[in-house]
Amino acid sequence: METHYSNLNNKLDKLQLKQQGTKQSKDYQQHYKFYPRTINRTKINFTHEEWSLLNNGLQHSIEKPLDKYWTDLIMETEQAIRMLEPKIQRPFRILAAKKLKQIKTSSSHHADAKRETYILRNTNNKLRKEDAMITRADKGKSCVIIYNKDYTSKVNDFLDNNNFHKLPKDLTDKYQKIIIHTLKYCNLIIPTRQVRHLIQKKPLPPSLNALIKIHKPDNPIRPVVKKTNAPTYKIANLLVNKLHEHLHLKYHYSVKDSVSLANDLTKLKINEHHRMITFDIKDLYVNIPIPETFAITKQLVSEHNEEKITTQILMLLESVLQQNHIFFQNNTYQPEKGVSVGSPISKTVAEIFPQYLENTHLKHIIESKQIIFYTRYVDDVPMIYNTKYTSPKQSTSTSTRYTPTCSSHRHTKTTTAYAF
User: Fold this and answer.
1) Which H helix or E strand runs over 273?
2) DSSP labels for 22-65?
3) Alpha carbon 364 to chain centroid, angstroms
4) Edge-to-edge strands of the sheet including 164-167?
5) What is the pLDDT of residue 414?
6) Shortest CA distance to 209 belongs to which of 222, 219, 228, 199?
7) CA distances to 91, 329, 392 from 74, in Å
């Protein structure tokens, strides 16, 4: 009992601290930037009720009318009661009956849901009439209202800028056959009994969706590819573990999340000569050079494994990397280079090439007096340099010499947050 009351007191203490913290909310909001829940990139006018419903977010669920789920609710309740001990079933059945009757007779229970359904119908009619849609933003869990033509245009700009070309037909069946054939020769890394579970029964092409980057000029897209039914998806999941087991990657110059970055920054001693500059590796996944990355992977795997195991890992990796096509609006596209967006293995493969550059070409610069701090999270690189020994122009020139797709911007004094 003492433990119970101790837990309650701890909860009360936390609530009191939380309430005290709300007094500083205005200062907190002025200091930190928060993205709005809904962003309208159209000329459509929404009523106050429609806007409030949109601000609930894309995960908001409107309750269905009672007659749609009443029978299922009774059956599921009875099924749950029958799982209890026989002695206590009758009391719980009486309590459940009272609660069900209360739900049935409650007149206000569905008033809000009915109103929200009506508002949603009107909102959808407006979107349909203006040929617009609602999609997700890249940051802040915001939703973006955008015209369909603008959405399509942004996706096409991404495809054109990253050298995607349209294919005459879907390649899903072709890659399915390649995977089935490759699995026959990987008995050292995949048990024979597991092979049939790695083959998709009904493979589908990877479909492309887009998140709108509301924090960047012109609001470009971040591609999101659904590959759960693609021929290589299950293999890629398995191969991620195999690569981590056999590659022995060394994360000297990268962090796993923003918390690790914050912890590293608090340990630094900063003076008036230190400045921060940030680099963004533009569209990292679709710009990774596959032949070079494959050669680096071969070298790393062969250092710690037998020749036969190395051969099978590389054979499987090559088959997975071949499938980098995507499906958008009834058309199939494939890039000239890069790893497949949305594949479980993409993050690992995209880590191999930057690590190689950092450990070979950039190591002597990173560990020199010029650079006070350097780290990387996937495609974001914050760096603190010493103005006594270098300048932003020299730092940018050095980075882009080895990574041509790397663009940079300077972290100014007026900025109070770094989007990481």
Assistant:
1) none
2) GGGHHHHHHHS----SEEE-SS----HHHHHHHTT-TT--PPPP
3) 33
4) 164-167, 331-335, 326-328, 207-212, 221-226
5) 40
6) 222
7) 16, 43, 68
| Tokens encoding 125 | 């009619």
Question: How many other CB atoms are there within 10 angstroms of residue 32's CB atom?
Answer: 9
Residue in this structure with the two tokens 């690790």, named with its chain if needed: 260
Beta strands in 274-386 (DSSP E): 274-281, 326-328, 331-335, 371-374, 380-386
Neighbours of 406 (CB within 10 A): 20
CB-hemisphere CA count at 13 Å for 316?
28
Query: Which one-letter DSSP state was computed for residue 341?
Result: T
- Quick one: which of 391, 350, 344, 334 has its CA closest to 172? 334
DSSP code of residue 256: S
Most confident of 256-260, 263-267, 398-402: 263-267
Residue-wise pLDDT for 167-179, tens only, equals 998 889 999 999 9
Point out which residues pair with 409 in neighbouring strands.
278
- CB of 224 within 8 A of CB of 211? yes
Question: What is the 3-class SS of 198-242, one letter each residue?
Answer: HCCCCCCCCEEEEEECCCCCCCCEEEEEECCCCCCHHHHHHHHHH
Q: For strands 143-147 and 38-40, give the pairing.
A: parallel
Mean pLDDT of the chain: 83
- CA atoms within 13 A of residue 374's CA, in its CB half-sphere: 21
For residue 384, list its beta bridge partners. 276, 373
Which pLDDT does position 395 carry in this prediction? 64
Q: Token pair of 127, please?
A: 């979107």
303 burial level (CB within 10 Å; 0-12, 13-18, 19+):
exposed
Please say if the pLDDT value at position 399 is more than 90: no
CA separation for the pair 326, 336 (Å, rounded): 13
Nearest-angstrom CA–CA distance, 354 and 358: 6
> Is 122 within 8 Å of 129 (Cβ atoms)?
no
| The model's pTM | 0.70
